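General statements about sequence and structure are easier to judge against a single worked case. For one protein, we set the task of working out the structure tokens from the amino acid sequence alone. This step matters because it turns folding into a mapping between discrete strings. The amino acid sequence and the backbone structure tokens for this protein are reproduced below.
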Amino acid sequence: MAVVLVGGVGCGSADSTRELAEFYTQRIIWGSCSGFAGGDKLGPEVECAKVLVPIDYDKPNGTTGKVAISRLRARGDRVGSIVVNPGGPGASGLDKADTLGKTALGERFDVVGFDLRGSGASTPKIECLTLSETATLRPDDYQTDWSPSGVETVERNNRDYVDKCVERSGTELLGHVGTREVARDLDVIRAVLGEEKLTYLGYSYGARLGSTYAEAFPRNVRAMVLDSGVPLDGPVADLVKFYASLQQAFDTYARDCAENVDCPVEADPSRASHVLQRLLNPLIGQPIPVGTRTLTYSGAVTAIVAALYNPAGWSTITSGLQQLRSGRGDILLDAAETVPGIVDTTVQTAVFCLDDPRTTDRAAAAARQERMFAAAPFLNDGNFKGQAPLDKCAFWPTPPTGTPHTFSVSGLPPMVVVAATGDPAAPYDGNQKLAHQLNSPLITYRGTQHGVFLLSGSTCVDAPVLNYLTELTPPADGLLCQPA
């Protein structure tokens, strides 16, 4: 087994590196995924295992955890293993061995997925709220009561939420689930897979993880594809830019919708946003019952935003709004209820709180909220009153472990950045900056979706990326691809 105990930025002292050898040289046992959270949904040919890691890499003799990994072996002439992260942070990783392993990627590579520390089948898992507490302590994704009492209630719930996290998960775990630690887990995974150098594919947040790994372990990189990410000199969650990207996607949807009969919105961006809010605003005071369930304003917006991530979801927005005009909410509610299963929001919150600058001043929080609504009028319910609550990160019990910074490592092998021009969640200009920071070619896809490689059906994108991963020959910079 090839074990490389070299690192870069943030890799600890020589003594701690020697003490980490037991993690790097461990032998894992592959077996059935039965008994792993989500494992029952994987194909029988997928194998699972757990990798032992320290909770705090600066204390390798302290508390340990286990990162759940999955593998689907290569079907053909094997190059090696490729580790995949689907983003989120907190999206299920185990199933990526199953789904991506069945694509052309699985012809030459063992496709390996993993659940971030603290999430999914990895242990210990971050625990904050019980199911019964969720309804009272977890604020709606989209706040509608901007009165002083409404703002106070949300902020109190945010504080109570963090208190529950501390009570049930402890400050040690809550302080060590940031991208810095996940990148170090990734290097342990590389070693126990028997790979001298890492081959990696990261989507969305997974691109941030990849660039963080490349910065920390530049000599351990074989090849990396970073799809729909953000540069290191900005926060993982830049909400103003995120809202602006969502507005761009909504405007594109509205123009497409307006070409059809009985479109519930209008093609003109300002009119489309206004018409949407005219349809949604009554839900603030009068949610719509759907059997024993209820469609709220927040639920409707959650469904619409999720459907904007790919044009395949646009029909859900149209049919849901058409139904809403007649006083029914089945379609939007069904769509909204699928969203929490996509990403573990508990882990997502923890990562954001450790990776991004925190807003602890209420005036700054209000100013940010005002900029968000200005960037995305289609999400502005018109009730904002100039004040906003502090979010959960303002009350997080441990300090950040990462911060936006300039990528400063040279000598990396060529990597590849892939981005869609109309990405609803990761601005295209951010991917341009990421490619420049990494001195890597950028493949541009003219489309409105989040995630492109192997997800768009574009041979123009897929073929050169697959060739790069197998042959280590990067595509020419500036490759422009159109939807099929």
User: Anything to note?
Assistant: DSSP finds 19 helices and eleven strands in the chain. The chain has a mean pLDDT of 93. The first strand starts at residue 47 and ends at 54. Residues 148-169 form the longest helix (22 residues).
